[in-house]
Amino acid sequence: MPVPILLVTGFLGAGKTTVVNHLLAHAEGRRIAAIVNDFGAINIDAELIAGASDGVVSLANGCICCSLEGDLLRTLSTLLRREPKPEHIVIETSGVADPADIVRNLMDPVILREAPLETVLCVIDAATPSTALEDSLQRSQLRVADIVALTKLDLADEGAGARMRQAIRALRLPAVVVDARHGEIPSALLFPANVERAPAPRDPGPKRPAEERFETLSWTSDRPISLPRLQQAIGRLAPKLARAKGLFETVEQPGRQMVFQFAAGRATLAPGDAPAAGVPRTRIVFIAELGVLSKAELDGIMEACVAGG
Hints:
This protein is α/β, with parallel strands linked by helices. The protein has helices at 16-25, 72-80, 99-106, 109-114, 136-143, 160-170, 187-190, 227-237, 295-303; strands at residues 5-10, 32-36, 49-53, 56-59, 64-67, 88-92, 117-125, 147-151, 176-179, 214-221, 243-249, 257-263, 266-271, 282-289.
């Protein structure tokens, strides 16, 4: 029996990982295999973890999760040979990936027969200005979508969802638009009941030249950082950032690790697990458009966050 694929796309920080986390944590007896670009980004509750082998983490609810390393088709082939075989496969794309290229790969006749692309879900932060939909990458992500999920409605003003729905309708897309509060989407929309029905091949459109648009910059420190100084630093960096996330220990709360996220102009902090041994106390990854932020500028701003610096 073929194993249907759910492809999850969306721009940096839109909330894709929250959606995938919710799907895996509320599998309702389904055996779901999730392929994600950044394995560390998946934050399944600790009680769901059963064990790991060969880069695959088994979840106690019967699901599994693995990172996308190398060729997508090879990763899919490996999952399809597992026993028991998954009933559904979820692929979370990178926030800077053009999903049309992935759709094109999934139209391979062998993959289409064994693991047909059933649904494409595009995740959009409801608080994003509607003008952001003019971006060519976001347009490409929307163009291939069957379902558009509006996330972070609790962080947006009251009319944000309605404005985004109107902007999406103006694009005359066939996609269904749904609210996804806290990453929750009706499972009936995402997992078809009749998996024996093979979906029709999709036309991803003409292949576009690859465009290197974003770069990743990292900053680490073996010393705790000052939280007020970090807030000042992020305020200075925010206009140049597309996304940032990391782990750090503060001088105000020694021995306690914090999880930092920055997306769509908003920064959030949450308590993390105990710091791991043998790694820097602070590890933050910043994503910016090419040439907008230099490593020297980033280091200069962030070094000022170090306690006693």
